[in-house]
Amino acid sequence: MGSKVVDLLHWKDAKTSGVVFTCLMVSLLSLLHFSIVSVAAHVALLLLCGTISLRVYRKVLQAVHRGDGANPFQAYLDVDLTLTQEQTERLSQQIASRVVSAAIQLRHFFLVEDLVDSLKLALLFYILTFVGAVFNGLTLLILGVIGVFTVPLLYRQHQAQIDQYVGLVTNQLSHIKAKIRAKIPGTGALASVAAAVSGPKAKAE
């Protein structure tokens, strides 16, 4: 499943990736102007009209003795979608494991198990308040879909140049951080406070 998603995002099959990207963009752009119920109903209606039309077309061919009238979707109808008890248990365990992992992470951040991590999350949410004031969630989702389908393709086509520029930017950021730490005495004090807070926790473990 993971390899198929990677192939889709890297446009290994341009036709399939183009269809998926177009469908996603049309659906998201439709949600900008219509409610999600209306969009879902129209998409389902369009899909049903397509499948019913194809089924009726096969029946018409059978009536004029140019086909057997078989259901064009029979191959998909014959696919066994039932889960064995073992598969059901394994799927349930995976879902439960992810839910518990998410709950542990939320407890870690929101109950301030580590002060530095909680402060980082608070800073992230503070930045998101400014992002939310400029973009709504749907606009960010559209930009995210465009980025997910374009960035891997651009990286694959210009990997050497991008790696070179990323390396330069990383080096510059490292130099800037080093200069800031050298010029601001409070940086070392903040690190000492963070170490002091997390120290008792490490000793307890």
UniProtKB/TrEMBL annotation:
Subcellular localization, as worded in the UniProt entry: Endoplasmic reticulum membrane
Highest taxon, organism lineage: Eukaryota
InterPro entries, A to Z: Reticulon (IPR003388), RTN1-4 (IPR046964)
GO cellular component terms attached to this protein's record: endoplasmic reticulum membrane; neuron projection; postsynaptic density
Alphabetical UniProt keywords: Endoplasmic reticulum, Membrane, Transmembrane, Transmembrane helix
Residues in Reticulon domain copies: 5-205
Residue spans crossing the bilayer: 19-49, 124-155
Main location (coarse class): endoplasmic reticulum
Stored Pfam families: Reticulon
Native species: Bos indicus x Bos taurus
Annotated membrane topology: Multi-pass membrane protein
Protein name, UniProt field: Reticulon
GO biological process: brain development; endoplasmic reticulum tubular network formation; neuron differentiation
